[in-house]
Amino acid sequence: MEFPVTLHILGKEVLLHPVTESLGIFIGMRYYTFAKRKDKEKFSSVNSLLILIAATLGALLGSHIIGSLERPYDLMKAENVWMYIWLNNTIVGGLAGGLIGVELMKKIIGKKESTGDKMVYPLITAMFIGRIGCFCTGIYEETYGLPTRSMFGMDLGDHISRHPVALYEMFFLLIVFIALKYFQKNYTYRSGALFQLFMLSYFSFRFILDFIKPKFNIILNLSTIQIVCLLVIIYYIYLLKKNNHEIIRSR
Q1: Residues of 82-104 as b/e, b for ≥16 C-beta within 10 angstroms?
Q2: Cα dihedral sign for 235, 24, 142, 148?
Q3: Which pLDDT does position 109 carry in this prediction?
Q4: pTM as predicted
């Protein structure tokens, strides 16, 4: 397998990564639309649209802001700061920014109930498909791991055995998908618990995973992404402990 993987479309060579990202977003949105059709909750379509807009805008801003802060010195030295910010992004920032956008909008429109449970499986699906493209890009984007001598090491395009972190993440997302389906089937829980478990699981995984990825340490051997992960982990541990009495195993 040669990296980066490309496709021939209409006589042009195109990287697979943007194709899988677009496909992931499309399938994820269709999955979410299907889930919403089965939703019995009567909620204003205008408010739903406002929350979706807030989530999208928050995710866009969070993704690029956190992505560009991964290497602060490069950001400060950039000739075109805005272009540097636009070219750098991360799913961690996207999820965190989307969360902030939704929570702010819910306060504005006065909605207290959670809106995230229906987004869990579409998000996992979109992220899984997107990571296929990340893996197929090899070392040509910053989604590869450190050199390793372990049995999992792969040559991602530079003739060095590296951790295929995109594959690790795909496997993790598959396990989380199955585990949350089991939780959903066997437990009764307050609205929002499913989304909280997903976010806590994913950010915990990313916090650990980034120790085997090239990174710029900001403080205490932690990168910007890992600091964001810690903040989100603390937030969701608080929420789950607060509502723990409302999670009951079904008979």
Answers
A1: eebbeebbbbbbbbbbbbbbbee
A2: positive
A3: 83
A4: 0.90
Instruction: Report the alpha-carbon distance of residue 46 to residue 241 in Å, rounded.
Output: 32
Q: Which two tokens stand for residue 238?
A: 């608080």
Best CA proximity match to 66, nearest among 208, 236, 218? 218
In the block, tokens 């066997």 appear at 186
What percent of the chain lies above the pLDDT cut of 90?
57
Q: What is the pLDDT of residues 100-147, one digit of tens each?
A: 998 898 888 887 767 688 889 999 999 999 999 999 999 988 889 999
Phi/psi for 39 (5° steps) reads -75, 125
Tokens 């402990």 belong to: 241
Q: pLDDT tens digits, residue range 142-169?
A: 889 999 999 999 999 999 999 999 999 9
Answer yes or no: are the C-beta atoms of 131 and 151 closer than 8 Å.
Answer: no
